[in-house]
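Researcher: Going back to the complex we discussed earlier. I've cleaned up the inputs and rechecked each line, so this should be the final set. Can you rerun the prediction on the complete assembly and write out the structure?
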Amino acid sequence: MAFHIKKQKKILRKLLVTLTLFILGFLCLSLSDFIIKNYFPQTSSQEPLLPVVIMALLAILTLKPLDKFYLQLFDRYFFKKKVYAHIVLMNLADELEVVLDLQELANMVVNTFGEVLQLKTAALLVLPSDHDDLEVASAYGWHVSDYRRVRLSQTSPIMSFVRAHGAHVLVRNQVLQAFSWKEANQLVYDFDLMRSSWVIPLLVKSEIIGLLVFSAHRSERAFDESDFHFFREFGQRISKSVLNAVRVQKLKRLNNELQDAQSQMLQSTKLTAIEQLATGIAHEIHNPLTIISGKAQVLLLQRDKVPLDTRIEDVLKTIVKQTKRAADITRKLLMFSQSSGLSREALVLSQIIEDTLSLVSYQTSLDGIRIVKHIAEDVPAFHGNVHELREVFLNLILNAVQAIGTEGEIRITLQYSPQDKLVEVRVADTGKGIAPENLEKVFNPFFTTRHSALGLGLFVTKQIVHHYGGAIRVESQSNEGSLFILRLPMNEVSPEAVEVSNPEFFGASN
Amino acid sequence: MKRLMVVDDESEICDFLKLFFEDRGFQVTVAFSGLKALEVIDQVKPHVILLDIHMPGMDGLSALREIKKRLPDCKVIMVTALETRDKIEEAMRLGADNYITKPLSLEYLERDVREKVALLAKSGKIINESV
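Model: Rerun complete. Updated structure for the full complex:
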């Protein structure tokens, strides 16, 4: 509503200026005609340029003072406009008291301030919570790219000036006149940096918390004493709101940092706890397991000399096999806790997949599970640890085998995306799928739907994938099989790996 | 005669390893700690030592260091319950010739021990002594 009135007045002003210009133009034309007829009667017909030159001269001479006159006239005429601006800004100050988001607050301040006073630029600089330089919180009429570049040091001349003179509004020209050439030069730099001619300091208990800076379209755009009085009052009104918002921002940042630290600590304590648990269990359990398994093996290997009863042989084999299984539990736990910091080398992923498949080929052929592979040929060598990657593929494939049970198909796809520098491995099975409520849990430790399983396989897989900066997700529906999608970034590629991947790449332009 | 030494604080483990390897023609000496092992290695001069890492008193790594100093030709296979990676890496750095995790596969262990013996025989170390 208010803006409509303002626009109407603007149009009215323009209309009046144009009308006056028309009349003046007409006068000019008559005047030049008169001048030519009286002083240059002989050239009037041959020199068509002359009247134009004279008219241009007259126009330049009269337009500028005229415009200024109109501006002042209108400002005075629309004295109500000033009152209106003051009311709007004071209402804004009231509104700001409840705005706690610094960005929102800063946007409201500079936009309203800039619009209402029809400024060229306006910016709010605040003292952020994490360092000592003033930063632009929001700006009106600035280039977006300038926002981040502008920083005002606490020790800058303008800040020293504000500290010495308090809440007075700084007017560029007046301030500069009060200084020696050298000091003024430094101040000019600060004013230019902030693209401003006026500076309203924002102070709370004589502490500078920010600056509201602005400039007008016309350098001669004058504010009078009452304006400055108002600016000072406005500055005081919004200072507390700005301070509140800055503090809230600081609290938010600290809160985030705290949460990060907390989750990191949780992660590290979890790791060491599992590591300790694993090594502890290993020492207490692996020795008895070694004895049980060892003695059974001693008996079993007697068959080289004396043939054993097959039933006894079966029992002994079972003992050996089951002790190994028990030991694998702690081994997996430790593997998870140590999966970082292994030596890495350039690896051919398709080869690792083949190796892993050969491990389970006996099982799959027994269970009637077909394996379909789509291995892209352009996959470059991957920089990683062979044991970790085998563990990843083995867990995914075993998971698929177990999901299928008997009769089914596992599709393994290996692709490389050169744009994203990502390797993608998909393992799809035709198994029983994952219930929707379990989809998020499959990567959790000790989550399993099978009684005999430990529930660490996918957890370990996810941990390893994360160590490589990759991601793993699962898509599944009950009774429709599952699809595991694993993406690994090709980072930290060693020079050898580049050679393996594409030797002709560098010579392609020839 | 191929000489094997088993160093482990679990007597039962030493027992079956002794039984197993004696059965296969090795001369087996048993020590229940790193210190005990160091006391006798100069007389026994084993060709291959199966050395546990986690033992009370002197642990396997310190024993390994000392063994390699005194008997540089002796092959040492670390036998570990389950060790953190840095321990295994340290063992390899100190000159361990292999490491095997418990529970042991005796067939694998025998193969590995025979491999080490064959290496020594190849370089003439065993024949010279046994003559």
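Model: Worth noting: Confidence is low (pLDDT under 50) at residues 1-5, 493-510 of chain A.
Researcher: Good, that matches what I expected from the previous run.
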